[in-house]
Specification:
Blueprint (H helix, E strand, L loop, with lengths): L8 E5 L6 E6 L10 H14 L7 E6 L10 H17 L5 H18 L3 E6 L2 E3 L1 H7 L3 E5 L3 E3 L13 H8 L1 H10 L2 E3 H7 L4 E3 L2 H15 L4 H14 L8 H13 L1 H11 L10
Parallel strand pairs: 2-3, 3-4, 4-6, 5-7, 6-9
Antiparallel strand pairs: 1-2, 7-8
Helix pairs in contact: 1-3, 5-6
Length: 277
């Protein structure tokens, strides 16, 4: 359940807008580096949220001034020790494979979650944190943000996040950033298309968050979920392959509770029932 206690993340419903869930990565001592425990906790929360339409928006950020500095090197060291032990036991297990696969599954779940995911990008946004930023629906970079794909400088590839970075900013820019391990700031992240907005200070960040949530609350949550699913599929398939599926989704929506109520409200010039004042 969402009200359970976690060790690597914090969850909080917004006091004034309970349809907003604040999801905070909470390992500030390591700049919120993503441990296996954090991956498991996030995966649990996302599974709970898949069918919870009482939550319309998720604000994802990091504790202590940093978003996420990537994967936890300690977990990699532990995996190395497990590999050595496995070799002795000759059981054929591969902890590195399992560790990376679980992170990949988490990124995929975050990408597909039906709620609107808003990332607040501060401090370090590196490696896996960069990947999380690339699967957000709305990304706001701050003046402290420092982005980068440092994996190749550590002798490893950005394996699981590479497809999502390519889809976010395109092939040529991804090649440059990944192969050079380049670092850049929040303003550059907007120019590249990783972030949508740049906030020069806390006041501007609050303003941008407020404006984003004001727009979310006017959109029907189930219609948003269907729309997000179709948009993600549109990135994978030709438009001609989605015509029937899109038509079925539209027909189901327009005849469903939200569609009937929304079109009736429009005709009567009234607010839609899901619109929150």
């Amino acid at each position: 359940m969402l009200d359970q206690t976690y060790t690597c993340i914090k969850l909080e419903r917004d006091a004034q807008s309970p349809w907003v869930l604040h999801l905070t990565l909470d390992r500030p001592q390591s700049r919120n580096a993503m441990s296996l425990a954090m991956v498991n906790e996030l995966s649990h929360v996302l599974a709970e949220l898949e069918s919870d339409f009482s939550v319309r928006a998720i604000i994802l950020r990091g504790e202590g001034g940093h978003f996420c500095a990537g994967g936890d090197i300690k977990d990699m060291a532990n995996a190395r020790a497990q590999v050595a032990q496995s070799a002795k036991q000759e059981n054929g297990s591969d902890p590195y494979f399992e560790l990376n696969k679980q992170f990949g599954e988490l990124i995929l779940k975050m990408n597909q979650i039906p709620q609107v995911v808003v990332c607040v990008l501060e401090g370090a946004i590196l490696g896996g944190g960069f990947g999380l930023a690339c699967v957000s629906d709305v990304a706001i970079a701050t003046s402290t943000a420092k982005f980068g794909l440092p994996e190749t400088s550590l002798g490893i590839p950005p394996a699981q996040i590479a497809p999502f970075v390519v889809k976010r900013i395109g092939l040529t820019q991804t090649r440059r950033l990944a192969l050079l391990g380049e670092r850049f700031d929040g303003e550059e992240s907007v120019r590249l298309g990783i972030s949508h907005f740049y906030a020069k200070d806390d006041a501007e960040l609050d303003q941008l968050l407020g404006r984003t949530l004001d727009q979310v609350k006017n959109c029907a949550p189930k219609a948003n979920a269907v729309t997000k699913k179709l948009i993600l599929k549109a990135a994978e398939f030709e438009a001609s392959e989605l015509i029937e599926e899109a038509a079925q989704a539209f027909s189901a929506a327009v005849q469903g509770q939200e569609g009937v109520a929304g079109t009736m409200a429009f005709v009567q010039k009234k607010p839609a029932p899901w619109a929150i004042s």
